[in-house]
């Protein structure tokens, strides 16, 4: 940290919050709110005279509340920058610190919050994680019994620079415990709280257990666990060392921890699965390995950065295997536990990788983006005369700027080409490069040119369902030959008009398929598509088309078997309805469809394809 | 040694298809339920985690014939603590339903009605925590009277019905009022 602070190209903004982020790769504007420290950084030399005179004592957050701190403080002795801050909520304004500071005149109570705007090219998000408070698990009694502590509290007790100078004392009497039990997976791997595995708790628990054993060889150390996970280099050896040092590993998740009110000892009740036996272990101290959880502000900061949170609340990477450091917003990268719980080596690796990814962009004069982007025809956009902004509302990347009385404008560098705006625009005023209405229409006309009533038109998204169809092919799964596929980038591009046009052309069945919701490659593209598709069965039914002739399926790239099954089922439906009935329905619906598609003809090029 | 050849890999699907058995595959064998179970603390042979594992492994005949599947009293203490949200009482009911269809009978004490003494007041049916008692009109000695009929499969043998009955006409086999009274008298005599 000290090196970072000294580096000429690094500016540290501490005690500050990101308020808002706008712009795009290479051109971000970040609004930062700098909180007032009430200390002038240039004058403070970190001498430490002010806290000596401060009369206020409050629990020290860095020491997990075990030790006190003053109202004028540094978060921890090694803090960078080493500048004191006045915690104004707890300060009584006695001004003793001002006297103590003397000639330095570093204390300034007139400071106000300051907003600064930074122009940056790339952003790395490394906001870390929080530790879950285990009080909701009542049976474990955290907060009720003094001698039940969390692993982070133990970490402060073990630390030589901590409040006990490295003496691991138990809170009730300040004695070194003669026995200690560690409980794993407290709040993680638990469907009631956090479903995921926090990943690094096994290793730090083994480390803490070994430290305990080394400091106090007579202390009995036991670890209650569901599974011990030691997947990284050298970790398994470390685990075996702990077993050899006499640490007792008991497989079994405790159901209850009760306190002996006189001795303040704790009784841990569990099943020892290896021995198929119930155990009641009396121990002097219990340490809970609690879940690592996303930071409190993870969702609001994610919204400001236009990066989504995964179901557990951590920031979602662009792709779990191929782009684990990138986010769906280009130019923004993830490092460390902000992306998911991880240990120090993994965080350092990801941090270096993120810096490398960002560096590629920073040294480049120009940056190539995918050519598949959306484009607005300004003369067709209705926003010039009426309030519309539907496109901006549907854009998963906030790439569309809509100002009153002006046609909406797409910031090309922010557009990822899902096509949601193109499909949703009620006036067909937006087109997508390489997937324009004209191009897709031409494909539809070609595949439905011959005996359309015997065919299934399958609209597939590029990332998942097209991959699923491909998997079905390369795996040699058998399915009827009646399907004809058309690929678009995202299910969000599948315009309602395409489905109507397919029926107008006489298609027997139409399939709309895309990624599963959680796999969507365009943040919320699939959700827009699902909403749109929900309305279609009723609309086509009103036109006289059997609703079962339109089907929506979410098929991942691995689900080749599902693709084959869906096509087989649709083929069966097609046959059971029969060609005559399909032709009859299509003939009946055609005038109504043509009426609803009339506005489409105004789109440049469409009339030619439709032969009008 | 266990012989894996005789195991039925579809047994878990059979249980999962039964109402209440859906969550069988969520269990990751952490043992919380066993440590929380009051029955396990009395009878070490009863181990819900092991029973679930036996189902998942496909030990069909062993599970269905086991007297242990009838022991769960549906107190749901384990359900509160289970990190996977598995309700073992529901799961045990699913296993029991399959066992009954296969002709296995629960081997446990259940409530019995003394038809001669019963006044048909229906208090027992009201208090039964398992809805195991139903008042049914029966032709008896030439007249229509109302009698409580006990569903042997639903009854857990808790004895609440015996305690509420004003005329001691219902009770659990082996611990009916008169037997307990005899025991008290014997005990009191022993105390001198």
Protein architecture, described:
The complex is a heterodimer of chains A (612) and B (192). Among the domains of chain A are: 130-293, FAD/NAD(P)-binding domain (3-Layer(bba) Sandwich), CATH 3.50.50; 374-432, Alpha-Beta Plaits (2-Layer Sandwich); 437-609, Rossmann fold (3-Layer(aba) Sandwich). Chain A starts with a helix and ends with a helix. Helices cover 28% and strands 20% of the residues of chain A. Chain B is of the alpha+beta class and 192 residues long. The mean pLDDT of chain B is 89. A two-stranded antiparallel sheet of chain B has the order 1-4. Chain B has helices at residues 11-17, 32-36, 38-42, 48-57, 60-65, 77-81, 88-101, 123-127, 160-164, 177-191; strands at 111-113, 133-140, 143-150, 170-172. Chain B folds into 2 domains: 4-101, Alpha-helical ferredoxin (Fumarate Reductase Iron-sulfur Protein, Chain B, domain 2, Orthogonal Bundle); 111-191, Alpha-Beta Plaits (2-Layer Sandwich), CATH 3.30.70.3270. The A-B interface holds A 139, 185, 189-192, 226-227, 251-256, 269-273, 276-278 and B 26, 28-36, 40-41, 44, 47, 49-50, 78, 80-81, 83-85.
């Amino acid at each position: 940290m000290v090196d970072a602070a000294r580096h000429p190209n690094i500016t540290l903004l501490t005690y500050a919050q990101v308020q808002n982020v706008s712009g795009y790769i290479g051109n971000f504007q970040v609004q930062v709110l700098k909180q007032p420290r009430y200390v002038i950084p240039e004058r403070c030399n970190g001498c430490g005279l002010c806290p000596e005179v401060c009369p206020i004592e409050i629990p020290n957050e860095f020491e997990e509340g075990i030790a006190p701190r003053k109202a004028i403080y540094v978060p921890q002795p090694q803090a960078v920058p080493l500048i004191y801050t006045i915690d104004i909520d707890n300060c009584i304004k006695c001004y003793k610190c001002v006297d103590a500071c003397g000639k330095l005149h570093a204390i300034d109570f007139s400071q106000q919050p300051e907003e600064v705007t930074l122009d940056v090219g790339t952003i790395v998000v490394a906001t870390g994680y929080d530790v879950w408070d285990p009080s909701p698990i009542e049976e474990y009694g955290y907060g009720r019994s003094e001698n039940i502590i969390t692993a982070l509290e133990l970490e402060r007790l073990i630390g030589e620079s901590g409040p006990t100078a490295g003496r691991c004392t138990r809170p009730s009497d300040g004695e070194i415990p003669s026995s200690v039990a560690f409980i794993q997976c407290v709040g993680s791997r638990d469907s009631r709280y956090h479903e995921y595995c926090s990943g690094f708790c096994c290793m730090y628990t083994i480390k803490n257990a070994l430290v305990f054993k080394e400091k106090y060889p007579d202390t009995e150390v036991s670890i209650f666990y569901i599974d011990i996970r030691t997947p990284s280099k050298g970790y398994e050896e470390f685990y075996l060392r702990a077993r050899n040092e006499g640490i007792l590993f008991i497989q079994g998740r405790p159901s209850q921890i009760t306190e002996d009110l006189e001795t303040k000892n704790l009784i841990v009740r569990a099943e020892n699965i290896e021995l198929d036996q119930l155990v009641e272990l009396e121990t002097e101290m219990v340490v809970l390995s609690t879940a690592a959880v996303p930071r409190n502000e993870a969702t609001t900061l994610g919204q400001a950065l236009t990066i989504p949170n995964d179901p557990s609340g951590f920031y979602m990477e662009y792709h779990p295997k191929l782009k684990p450091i990138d986010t769906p917003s280009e130019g923004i990268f993830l490092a460390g536990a902000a992306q998911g719980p991880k240990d120090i080596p993994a965080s350092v690796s990801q941090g270096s990788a993120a810096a490398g990814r960002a560096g590629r962009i920073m040294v480049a004069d120009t940056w190539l983006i995918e050519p598949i982007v959306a484009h607005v025809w300004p003369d067709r956009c209705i926003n010039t005369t009426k309030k519309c902004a539907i496109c901006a509302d549907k854009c998963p990347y906030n790439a569309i700027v809509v100002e009153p009385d002006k046609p909406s404008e797409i910031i090309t560098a922010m557009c990822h080409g899902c096509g949601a705006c193109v499909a949703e625009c009620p006036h067909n005023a937006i087109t997508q490069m390489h997937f324009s209405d004209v191009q897709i229409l031409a494909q539809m006309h070609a595949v439905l040119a011959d005996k359309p009533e015997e065919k299934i038109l399958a609209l597939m998204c590029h990332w998942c369902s097209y991959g699923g169809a491909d998997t079905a092919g390369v795996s040699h799964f058998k399915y009827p030959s009646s399907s004809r596929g058309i690929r678009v980038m995202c299910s969000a591009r599948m315009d309602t008009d395409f489905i109507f046009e397919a029926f107008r052309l006489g298609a027997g069945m139409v399939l709309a398929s895309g990624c599963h919701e959680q796999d969507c490659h365009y943040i919320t593209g699939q959700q827009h598509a699902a909403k749109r598709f929900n309305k279609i069965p009723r609309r086509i039914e009103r036109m006289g088309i059997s609703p079962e002739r339109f089907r929506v399926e979410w098929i991942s790239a691995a689900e080749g078997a599902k693709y084959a099954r869906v096509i087989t089922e649709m083929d069966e439906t097609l046959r059971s309805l029969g060609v005559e009935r399909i032709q009859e329905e299509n003939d009946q619906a055609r005038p109504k469809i043509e009426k609803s598609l009339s506005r489409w003809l105004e789109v440049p090029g469409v009339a030619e394809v439709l032969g009008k | 040694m266990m012989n894996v050849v005789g195991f039925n890999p579809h047994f878990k699907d059979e249980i999962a298809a039964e109402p209440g058995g859906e969550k069988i595959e969520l269990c990751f064998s952490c043992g919380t339920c066993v440590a929380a179970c009051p029955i396990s603390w009395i009878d070490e042979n009863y181990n819900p985690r092991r029973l679930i594992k036996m189902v998942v492994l496909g030990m069909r005949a062993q599970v269905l014939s086991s007297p242990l599947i009838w022991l769960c009293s549906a107190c749901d203490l384990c359900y509160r603590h289970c990190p996977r949200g598995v309700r073992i009482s529901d799961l045990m009911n699913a296993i029991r339903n399959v066992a009954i269809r296969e002709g296995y009978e629960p081997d446990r004490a259940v409530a019995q009605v003394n038809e001669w003494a019963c006044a048909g007041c229906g208090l027992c049916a009201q208090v039964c925590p398992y809805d195991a008692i139903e008042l049914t009109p029966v032709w008896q000695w030439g007249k229509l009277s109302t009698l409580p009929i006990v569903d042997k499969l639903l009854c857990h043998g808790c004895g609440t019905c015996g305690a509420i009955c004003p005329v001691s006409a219902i009770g659990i086999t082996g611990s009916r009022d008169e037997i307990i009274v005899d025991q008290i008298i014997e005990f009191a005599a022993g105390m001198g």
